[in-house]
Amino acid sequence: MRYSVLDLAPVPDGQTIAQSLRNSTELAQKAEAWGYHRYWLAEHHNMPGIASAATAVLIGHIASQTQTIRVGAGGIMLPNHAPYMVAEAFGTLASLHGDRIDLGLGRAPGTDMQTARALRRGMAYDHASGDSFPQDVIDLIGFLGADDPHRPVRAFPGQETYVPVWILGSSLYGAQLAANLGLPYAFASHFAPAALEEALEVYRHQFRPSATLSKPHAMMAINVFAADSDAEGSRLRTTMQQAFARLRLGKPGKLPAPVDDITDHIPAPVLAGVNEALRISAIGSKDTVRAELSSIVGRYRPDEVIITGQIHDHEARLRSFETAAEILSEI
Questions:
Q1: Do residues 44 and 106 make contact, with C-beta atoms less than 8 angstroms apart?
Q2: Contact status, residue 237 vs residue 281, Cβ threshold 8 Å
Q3: Which of 30, 111, 173, 329 is the most buried (most CB within 10 A)?
Q4: Where are the alpha helices (DSSP H) in the chain?
Q5: Nearest 5°: CA angle at 55, between 49 and 57?
Q6: What is the pLDDT along the chain (331 residues), one digit of tens a residue?
Q7: 314-330 vs 17-34: helix crossing angle, rounded to 10
Q8: Is the pTM of this model over 0.85?
Q9: CB 180 within 8 A of CB 206
């Protein structure tokens, strides 16, 4: 089973975006050495604590600083972009870095509606309905596929790069679309696990083989907070709990430092919702994380897992991903 990294290029309190990007570069290089298969970056906007907004640009940088690990988007939020321009960007990345580039596509804007309108200025699109998403995906795949000289619009770079396209999702919609198009599917269980089991079942049951994929291939995301002890793992996790709570309350900011008692910082009803959203997590010492990862993988049986975890201290973050790699290589 392959295991990968999902990175939002977090910007911790007290640090700059420039330092955040250096941290992500170091993590990618170490992840390659630790045996991770992919290094994916996620598109978010108008969030002070996330530095991966210009996702394709950062993918190009990470790919230039690594040798073998696949680098891609987990994902590009397609409603924010013209499919043709995405094809040109990822065709360029594939032309530069060969068969190491992945393109995961999401249907959400990855931001608030006001920012979404700024992203899509001058283009007719209903962000609420996402009605054009299936056709946008089909068009984008066409721009990356076999060249047809009779087509009036072709992507250069883009055509014949065959960049692998994934569908990302947290609901049955994405599962059905990925199944119908015969594409690999990645579920955002690290922050929206409610439909995980049903979505995987729908995807596997409805899957139609395509020219690029003969059988279903599902990835699930898992938060990991690995440390020397269970107590320290739980403390590391309080950073992500605080960040998620602030986002839900409409107050996004830089990645907060961990705290000793999370109940002193988040009201109980909000904390309950946050913990439910983040329940697909492995937290604690190496032995505890091993048991929890084994349980999660055994229950959902993904073809791949992708590991994430918003951790304030960069060195602690590196140790957590290294520990996860050691465990997953055994699993």
A1: no
A2: yes
A3: 111
A4: 17-34, 55-64, 83-97, 113-119, 133-144, 172-181, 196-206, 230-248, 268-277, 286-300, 314-330
A5: 120
A6: 999 999 999 999 999 999 999 999 999 999 999 999 999 999 999 999 999 999 999 999 999 999 999 999 999 999 999 999 999 999 999 999 999 999 999 998 777 888 778 877 655 444 444 479 999 999 999 999 999 999 999 999 999 999 999 999 999 999 999 999 999 999 999 999 999 999 999 999 999 999 999 999 999 999 999 999 999 999 999 999 999 999 999 999 999 999 999 999 999 999 999 999 999 999 999 999 999 999 999 999 999 999 999 999 999 999 999 999 999 999 8
A7: 20
A8: yes
A9: yes
Residue 106, both tokens: 């999401």
Q: Please report where in the chains the tokens 């279903």 appear, as a residue.
A: 216
Please give the structure tokens belonging to residue 57.
């640009």
- Tokens for 294? 């084994």
- Amino acid identity for residue 253 in this structure: G
